[in-house]
UniProtKB/TrEMBL annotation:
Cofactors named for this entry: FAD
InterPro entries, sorted: FAD/NAD-bd_sf, MQO
EC number: 1.1.5.4
PANTHER family for the chain: L-2-HYDROXYGLUTARATE DEHYDROGENASE, MITOCHONDRIAL
NCBIfam families with a match to the protein in the record: mal_quin_oxido, PRK05257.1-1, PRK05257.1-3, PRK05257.1-4, PRK05257.2-1, PRK05257.2-4, PRK05257.3-1, PRK05257.3-2
HAMAP family hit by this protein: MQO
Catalyzed reactions per annotation: (S)-malate + a quinone = a quinol + oxaloacetate
Stored SUPFAM superfamilies: FAD/NAD(P)-binding domain (SSF51905)
GO molecular function ontology, one term from the record: L-malate dehydrogenase (quinone) activity
Protein name in the entry: Probable malate:quinone oxidoreductase
Organism phylogeny: Bacteria, Bacillati, Bacillota, Bacilli, Bacillales
Gene name of this polypeptide: mqo
Length: 500
């Protein structure tokens, strides 16, 4: 046991994309604040943010059908789609600022253009997709979207998916070229390297075991070296709990009243990955389908071109599943130890309400390779088992809380939970995820630093020109921002060669 103690202005727990983004924003806003990062793994971005643990979709609602909901009167509600798109525009603006300031050397290292497509089969879904297309394509944020129900056109767009396809039902797709594939793992590492060179103290193999408030209102963290088991105490005026799936336990340890009554439900993920260059060369898009009945929104099947370390591969999935771990490298006791007297009733209610979801997830875990191949063959009719391997993805911990919809309601979004005095904040949930990191971290700055936000505003606007304005009220601003971020991030100008 060591008695070493340190004091800093800010501690970021966890070296994932969220802490990387908050650290990078703070370094630009207040360069002289001392920041320490505490991470239990050996390197940055090993959990959900890692490129093999998520799908790398720059979520902007260009293809995800669950962000546009059909209303009882048959109209399509696009409000969620617009919100997610605007949030991704904030991320692209901040990344562009970092590129222009030479804080990111080459955007190609983490972002590439990949068309985003939706693909549906059957009369009902084709009608829905057409209506969705009509509702979105008039909106300046979704300009350039195309719709087709012509199999010949679809052969041009998605040759691998159309090869050997038996067409008994109507089929249709939408396509938009401004989609992206983002390597969030690479981006996380790039941002932490940059922070390290700006004197941010990044400590790996350090597990935060406990968090306590001190008499002067700061936070003292008990931190254990995972190799030597020695313990140190680190104190800070502000703590961000960016532990991904590990955040709920840490929030509970802080004891803040805002964290009471909240539980977590872990959903694991698996991808089928194809690295066979002949197959990979026949597909260049992220193609999202409809979720199966009873499936949670995060298990919408999709076939994605991924670009990792300059090599292309295809990901299919994710297949959701159940594991009691809250992190991929977590403990089998994570779920049970997250049940506390204050969230017991909420958790039990959620358990009763979500029996069918749990059953669905357990069945998904038990799927044989043949069954998974059948799901893949809905997308790639002639897929061969030898070309596809299974890869375990990250864990997502969905928030459970009491809402107007009832006790123990499962939430599929993200939520910032912060203390009333703004001295500590945690991020729970995982969707839309890494794509919206900048928007979520701006929310934290607003909630936790209200005394500074006015003085920071000019700098925030320099980094993120659309900060504080709804882009939809200013179509000219949308055009300007989209053109300039596309240029800086290398997302415009070239059309990727389509496979033959
Ligand atoms: C299957 C799947 C697919 C996804 N697809 C997409 C997608 O296509 N697009 C998208 O935008 N998002 C996607 N996401 C979501 C996205 O990956 C996450 O929202 C994002 O990576 C979360 O980042 P984070 O920094 O909060 O957490 P993480 O990346 O999980 O980082 C948390 C870090 O905290 C550390 N930690 C935890 N507890 C402690 C502790 N006690 N002490 C010290 N360190 C600790 C962990 O080791 C970890 O390094 C997907 C997620 C999954 C699982």
């Amino acid at each position: 046991m060591s008695n070493r103690q340190t004091k800093t202005d800010v501690i970021l727990i966890g070296a994932g994309i969220m802490s990387a983004t908050l650290g990078s924003l703070l370094k630009e806003l207040v360069p002289d604040w001392e920041i320490t990062v505490l991470e239990r793994r050996d390197t940055a971005g090993e959990e959900s943010s890692n490129e093999w643990n998520n799908a790398g979709t720059g979520h902007s609602s260009l293809c995800e059908l669950n962000y546009t909901v059909e209303q009882p009167d048959g109209s399509i509600d696009i409000s969620k789609a617009v919100k997610v798109n605007e949030e991704f525009q904030l991320s692209k603006q901040f990344w562009s600022y970092l590129v222009k300031s030479s804080l990111i050397r080459n955007p190609r290292d983490f972002i590439v253009p990949v068309p985003h497509m939706s693909f549906v089969q059957g009369e009902q879904d084709v009608t829905f997709l057409k209506k969705r297309y009509e509702a979105l394509s008039n909106n300046p944020l979704f300009q350039g979207m195309e719709f087709s129900n012509d199999p010949e056109k679809l052969k041009e767009w998605i040759p691998l998916m159309m090869q050997d396809r038996v067409i008994n039902n109507p089929i249709a797709a939408t396509k938009i070229d401004s989609g992206t594939d983002v390597n969030f793992g690479a981006l996380t590492r790039i941002l932490f390297d940059q922070l390290k060179s700006s004197n941010v103290d990044i400590k790996f193999k350090q597990n935060v075991d406990d968090i306590k408030r001190t008499s002067d209102g700061s936070w003292e963290l008990k931190v254990r070296n995972v190799d030597s088991n020695t313990v140190e105490r680190h104190t800070a005026k502000f703590v961000f709990i960016g532990g991904g799936g590990g955040s709920l336990h840490l929030l509970q340890k802080s004891g803040i009243p805002e964290g009471k009554g909240i539980g977590g439900f872990p959903v694991s993920g698996l991808f089928m990955v194809c690295k066979n260059p002949e197959v990979v060369a026949k597909h260049r898009a992220k193609v999202y389908g409809q979720a199966a009945i009873g499936a949670p929104p995060m298990s919408v099947p999709h076939l994605d071109t991924r670009v990792i370390d300059e090599k292309e591969s295809l990901f299919f999935g994710p297949f959701a599943g159940f594991s009691p771990k809250f992190l991929k490298y977590g403990s089998m006791f994570d779920l049970i130890t997250s049940v506390k007297p204050h969230n017991l009733v909420t958790m039990l209610s959620a358990g009763v309400k979500n029996v069918s979801l749990t059953t669905y997830l357990i069945k998904q875990v038990m799927l044989s390779k043949e069954k998974r191949m059948e799901a893949l063959q809905e997308f790639v009719p002639n897929a061969k088992a030898e070309d596809w391997e299974l890869v375990l993805a990250g864990q997502r911990v969905q928030i459970i809380k009491d809402t107007a919809a009832g006790k123990g309601t499962l939430q599929f979004g993200t939520e910032v939970i912060s203390a009333a005095d703004g001295s500590i904040a945690a991020l729970l949930g995982a969707s839309p995820g890494a794509s919206t990191a900048v928007s979520v971290m701006l929310e934290i700055l607003n909630k936790c630093f209200p005394q500074h936000i006015k003085e920071w505003e000019p700098k925030i606007k320099e980094m993120i020109p659309s900060y504080g304005v709804s882009m939809l009220t200013d179509p000219e601003l949308i055009r300007e921002i989209q053109a300039s971020t596309a240029q800086t991030l290398g997302l415009s100008g070239e059309k990727q060669a389509m496979p033959q």
